[in-house]
Design brief:
single chain, alpha/beta, 2 domains
């Protein structure tokens, strides 16, 4: 018991004890700097002091990507929810309901179409907040649908990847999405349409082993972890220490696995230039965006 409990009347006590929401300040994992959440949002979720790129919500990324934040949501075919009747500490169907309620999305990939500085594009965004952005049947179907829609509309296809890999709750059905998306990439290639991959933090596992590394151009956000197996697993397997910065975007760029590392503030302009170059389309004036 403190003096407030003993002396201050309950009504005044409740007035004095206005609780501050916990998410008003965000701590930078790299520097420990505290950033006001509104400042972080206005800076595209990049910590002003350290330049650390925090995870960016899907809606914020879509608003940043498309001209005036206008885009068309593309529907994807329905898939069986729980083909293996999987259960660990809870049913897989219950887990899906939980994440759908949490994110407001049906699954880990959101598919949209619109204009990027006047150029028509189709884009897919992988949401790490939905079961770690894992690749299951619904996510695979969304990516394949997006690529085929780009072929039908004759537009570039851009994907922002963020994933821990294949979804274990769907077993071999999840693994089959790797060859399915690879075949869809070949459809894009046959149609001579640009396929641009933006690798965000983290992109690992079966996603890296399939469509994430099959782009015409690979762009990575600064500091993003990109690889197949985790660094600790690799070290335990080869019994050697890995180089400093191994599996980070900058290391991969230096060793030829990534074409360029682009800051988030420059991402939109970079993607527009690449789409214009690869489609030989004129880029709209900056004021039109």
């Amino acid at each position: 018991m403190n003096w407030m409990s003993n002396v201050v009347p309950p009504k005044i006590r409740s007035f004095l004890r206005r609780e501050t929401p916990e998410n008003l300040w965000v701590k930078c994992p790299e520097s420990g700097e505290l950033v006001f959440h509104k400042d972080l949002e206005s800076n595209l979720y990049v910590v002003p002091g350290s330049g650390f790129h925090m995870r960016m919500p899907v809606k914020a990324r879509l608003d940043m990507l498309f001209d005036r934040g206008l885009y068309e949501e593309l529907a994807t075919p329905e898939v069986p929810l729980d083909p293996l009747k999987f259960r660990d500490i809870k049913r897989y169907t219950d887990r899906l309901k939980e994440y759908r309620l949490k994110t407001g999305a049906d699954d880990a990939v959101r598919l949209c179409a619109g204009k990027l500085e006047g150029i028509e594009i189709v884009a897919a965004i992988q949401d790490f907040e939905f079961l770690g952005g894992s690749l299951g049947m619904a996510a695979g179907e969304a990516i394949v649908t997006g690529m085929l829609t780009a072929v039908e509309r004759k537009t570039p296809f851009i994907i922002f990847t963020a994933s821990g890999g294949a979804r274990m709750q769907e077993g071999m059905f999840s693994l089959m999405q790797m060859p399915r998306t690879t075949v869809a990439v070949q459809r894009l290639r046959a149609a001579r349409l640009p396929y641009i991959v933006v690798l965000t933090n983290p992109t690992t596992g079966g996603v890296t082993a399939s469509y994430a590394m099959l782009g015409d151009i690979h762009i990575a956000e600064p500091g993003a972890v990109i690889g197949f197996a985790g660094a600790r697993v690799i070290e335990q397997t080869i019994r050697e220490r890995l180089p400093e910065g191994f599996q980070r975007a900058e290391y991969l760029e230096a060793h030829g696995m990534v074409d360029m590392v682009v800051r988030r503030h420059d991402m939109r302009a970079t993607l527009a230039r690449l789409c214009a170059l690869l489609t030989r389309a004129p880029v709209a004036e900056a004021g039109a965006a």
